[in-house]
Design a protein that fits this description.
The structure holds three protein chains of three kinds. Chain A is an all-alpha fold. Helices cover 70% and strands 2% of the residues of chain A. Chain A has one domain. Chain A has a two-stranded antiparallel sheet with strand order 1-2. By secondary structure, chain B is an alpha/beta fold. The relative contact order of chain B is 0.17. The N terminus of chain B is likely disordered. The chains are: A mainly alpha, B alpha/beta, C mainly alpha.
């Protein structure tokens, strides 16, 4: 194993361990719930880093997978709600209000917890694979991918809002039961949920790391760099992109399911344009080409947002500050915080780890020119 | 020329037109296994376009291409590559963000499926093989440097090493010696003669000295058509070829 | 027949607003390659300028148009100087930076003008309705239609009949070569960006009497405007017009058949499919690559 890889594995392990140890120091249920929310958004950022940072697919519709996962979990938990909140024959309350008298067919399988958990990953993956097939087979690239993913997100969002009778519309799905599997209850404000989420973040980080370190991960990075050249080595570029796109959707789906658990509802804002663009911001701040960087970027940015919006002094100016920080990061730190850390560690350890030398300035200006041209 | 059935690559009546402009106009070309074929011709003769059709970059307007007895002109680029055709482009195109070593690993593509590569990591024996290759092209010190940091000459060498790592049956080279010094050109010729043992090569080239050094059979293209074919001496004597090159001082001094 | 005609006119009215909003974006994106996600915020700034001029100085909408154009253009010019010019070589990063600028602009307005909805009065002369081919239509909407047509004419003239436009098109083709011929690309880009944002400001001012003015109003406009530009083909001004008209008619027609939400979803789906099969836009010329 290369020394660089060993250092990387160590760093990932230490950070994940630190996350897992948090409940030993924090016993305020409210704060723990807040931290759990940040970690879930960290998972979402890992998903985008895989497709954007490693494969060059700028997916502006990442929230679609997230929201679908969230709705799947909410549907399962809604059907388990104690009858006081639901209508007769276990019909969800909002359906009763909308004069629906039988459970629609696509709700039926969600009586099964196993199906719900499966669907929370499978539905986003299947939809991503379908969209990926449609887009990448046609060799659509760059900004056009960004626009198509964004438009698809808006379409799904509009459909969910429009079909109020079956989805709860603007209000989403609320009043949910608590998740119970294998005799364990996951209370949104308990440490059990936090542990579940920290474990999921650890799993997703290491899974994504394994993908990027594999030969397939290398091909994905080659595609990001020079898609056409990869074809002449015999790789089916579209398939590789569909693969990355779908794996990323699956991870986002997991994050969405977990988000329903900590928030105790699912809402159309979970697949909103606002959230979807925010994920891009988190990745950019943390470092899009680093999985851990992206996760930490999400946690730091949302954590800061939370802290600033709660403080008296910054109540009104925090968005202004966030916007400013963001513009500065894009202008001066194109590799995000991860790039800064990398640069520092290279300086400290000297040339011991030469696998990633200092942030390259020369190729950036030259390499980006072809990007500029391909956009025209 | 070889007999029927032994032909490795056959282009029959290939036509490529861009908005009515015929870049390649009824080209017929046969290359046998293990041959090193040079294609020469004035600017705009359609040499690069001819290579583009073989590797699938450009679609045919008419005609057909067969490789090892199979039609390939209707395949996608990656399928053609899997059938055993590798290509070096005129403009250096390596993966600038990846290290030299990673570039070579991507190029080694005998197994090209997504899932086959999903959780597959490099073995030590494979690494040694690539290190040897890097040594051969003089990049052993640069294995962990991003390819974007290499000099122009080093990039050219890396590109050729990528083809060696890919190990295709047929290699298409577009102006491999462009921008090289005399020594480098000479070293490239050596490399080609080595490659010839295991591969079939088609080389588009301007440098006649280089062509003389490596070529068996030379095909001359002019205005999208095949003008002449033969050994270096035959081509130099060919009256039509002389007239095409007239004014540039004849073919020998080009 | 009359409903059909009314439908066509509604569609044209929607289309003209789309074009008005998209024109500035088309010019910026088509020439500099900058994807200006803050475009909607410039529309919003234009609307707030109209509101401020009316409330504090008592200026009518029509009289303030020139001022509004200058105000938003000045904002655009400053932003180009401070942020955008560092990103011409990283076009995808312009999405991120301009989004950040948009967030800041929204919050700045919220802090200075307040977050509540504001209303701009329609010019009294245009408050009535007129009869077009037997269909009663708001005079103000007809005014927007004509004004947009005039703006498009001016823009086309600037791009294709003046030396600044020619320089701009030369830079679009190849920036380095253009610089070699002594064209000052920095200055031309600054002017283009300022002009594009000025147009956005005008769009905001003109739609302000039709819709309420709020700090968030830009978000919807920027998505619509992008769809128009991409569909029309990035460097085709005429394509932008046609695609605005098509999208306007399509939106009006589908909204008539079902509801607004479904209409919007269907329009977006159509756009997704069109981009998939013609990423270069509907009206871009094919070139050899």
């Amino acid at each position: 194993m290369k020394r660089g890889t060993a250092i990387q594995l160590g760093t990932y392990g230490i950070v994940c361990l630190a996350f897992l140890l948090v409940p030993s120091f924090v016993d305020d249920a409210f704060i723990l719930n807040k931290y759990a929310r940040y970690l879930v958004l960290g998972i979402l950022a890992v998903a985008l880093s895989l497709s954007w940072g490693y494969t060059g697919i700028l997916n502006l519709g990442q929230a679609m997978s997230f929201g679908l996962g969230s709705y799947c979990m909410a549907m399962v938990l809604k059907l388990r709600t104690v009858p006081v909140h639901t209508g007769k024959a276990g019909l969800p309350d909002f359906m009763v209000w909308n004069n629906v008298d039988t459970l629609p067919w696509f709700w039926e399988p969600f009586h099964s917890m196993a199906f719900g958990l499966f669907a929370g990953i499978a539905v986003p993956v299947a939809l991503a694979a379908l969209l990926g097939w449609f887009v990448f087979r046609g060799r659509v690239t760059g900004v056009y991918v960004a626009i198509i993913t964004l438009a698809t997100l808006v379409v799904v969002n509009l459909m969910i809002i429009d079909q109020q009778r079956f989805t709860g519309g603007f209000n989403g799905i609320t009043d949910l039961a608590q998740l119970e599997i294998f005799g364990l209850t996951f209370d949104a404000y308990g440490s059990s949920s936090y542990y579940l989420i920290a474990a999921a973040l650890t799993f997703c980080l290491f899974f994504a790391l394994a993908v990027t370190k594999s030969k397939a991960g290398l091909v994905l990075q080659a595609i990001r760099d020079n898609e056409n050249r990869v074809r002449y080595f015999g790789y089916d570029v579209a398939f590789f992109k569909i693969f990355a796109f779908s794996v990323s959707a699956g991870i986002a789906g997991i994050a969405g399911m977990l988000y329903t658990i900590v928030m105790e509802f699912a809402s159309p804002t979970f697949l909103g344009v606002q959230l979807s663009l925010s994920v891009v911001i988190w990745c950019a701040v943390g470092g899009r080409q680093s999985l851990l960087g992206a996760a930490l970027g999400a946690i730091i940015v949302t954590g800061m947002q939370g802290a600033l919006s709660e403080s008296e002094t910054f109540l009104k100016t925090w968005t202004l500050i966030m916007g400013f920080i963001f513009v500065v990061v894009v202008l001066f730190l194109p590799k995000g915080l991860a790039g800064v850390v990398e640069g520092l560690s290279n300086r400290v350890f000297g040339h011991g780890d030469s696998s990633k030398p200092e942030p390259n300035i020369v190729p950036d200006s030259l390499g980006a020119k072809s990007e500029a041209e391909s956009l025209r | 020329m070889s007999k029927n059935g032994q032909e490795h690559l056959v282009l029959t009546g290939v036509v490529v037109s861009f908005n009515g402009f015929q870049a390649v106009d009824g080209l017929t070309l046969k290359v046998s296994k293990g041959e090193l074929r040079c294609i020469i011709g004035p600017n705009g003769a359609g040499k690069t376009t001819a290579l583009d059709t073989i590797c699938g970059k450009t679609g045919l307007t008419a005609g057909s291409i067969t490789f090892m007895g199979k039609r390939i002109d209707n395949l996608e680029e990656h399928q053609i590559a899997r059938a055993g055709i590798g290509r070096k482009f005129q403009v250096p195109s390596v993966f600038r963000d990846l290290t030299v070593h990673e570039n070579l690993e991507v190029a080694r593509s005998k197994r090209s499926g997504v899932l086959a590569n999903a959780f597959c990591f490099e073995r030590d024996s494979e690494r040694e093989e690539l290190e040897k290759l890097a040594e051969f092209i003089g990049l052993q010190e640069c294995l962990e440097i991003p390819a974007g940091h290499l000099s122009h000459g080093q990039t050219q060498w890396l590109e050729m090493a990528l083809l060696v790592a890919q190990d295709p049956e047929l290699i298409l080279m577009d102006e491999p010696t462009a921008g090289m010094t005399v020594q480098e050109t000479h070293k490239t010729a050596e490399l080609f003669i080595r490659l010839k043992e295991k591969h079939t090569l088609i080389v588009v080239e301007h440098d006649m000295g280089f062509v003389k050094e490596i070529g068996d059979v030379i095909s001359v293209m002019h205005q999208g058509k095949l003008l002449a074919e033969g050994t270096v001496e035959q081509i130099a004597e060919h009256p039509e070829v002389r007239s095409v090159y007239l004014g540039t001082g004849g073919i020998g001094s080009a | 027949m009359e409903t059909f005609l009314a439908q066509i006119i509604t569609g044209l009215s929607i289309g003209s607003i789309l074009l008005l909003v998209a024109l500035g974006l088309a010019i910026i994106y088509g020439t500099t390659g900058v994807i200006n996600l803050a475009h909607g915020e410039f529309v919003m700034l234009g609307a707030y300028s109209a509101w401020a001029l009316q409330t504090f100085l008592g200026l009518g909408l029509i009289e303030s148009l020139v001022l509004i154009f200058l105000i938003t253009a000045a904002f655009g010019w400053v932003i180009e100087k401070v942020v955008i010019r560092h990103l011409y070589r990283r076009p995808l990063d312009t999405i991120l930076a301009t989004w950040g600028i948009g967030v800041m602009a929204q919050q700045a307005i919220r802090l200075s003008a307040g977050g509540e909805l504001r209303y701009v009065e329609m010019p009294s002369a245009l408050g009535s309705s007129v009869s077009v081919l037997g269909v009663e239509t708001s005079a103000f909407r007809i005014f927007i239609l004509l004004f947009t047509a005039a703006l498009f004419g001016v823009t086309w003239y600037l791009m294709y009949r003046t030396s600044v436009g020619m320089k701009l098109r030369a830079i679009t083709q190849d920036r380095e070569v253009a610089s070699c011929f002594g064209i000052n690309s920095q200055r031309t880009y600054s002017l283009t960006f300022a002009y594009g944002t000025g147009l956005a400001g005008l769009a905001g001012a003109l739609v302000s009497p039709l819709k309420s003015v709020s700090p968030e109003m830009g978000t919807t406009y920027v998505v619509d405007a992008f769809m128009v530009v991409v569909l029309g083909g990035v460097d085709s001004l005429v394509g932008t017009v046609v695609s605005a008209a098509i999208l306007g008619e399509l939106t009006g027609f589908l909204a008539f058949l079902s509801n607004d939400t479904i209409a919007k979803a269907l329009v977006l789906l159509t756009i997704v499919i069109l981009i998939r099969f013609r990423p270069q836009g509907l009206f871009a010329a094919r070139t050899r690559t």
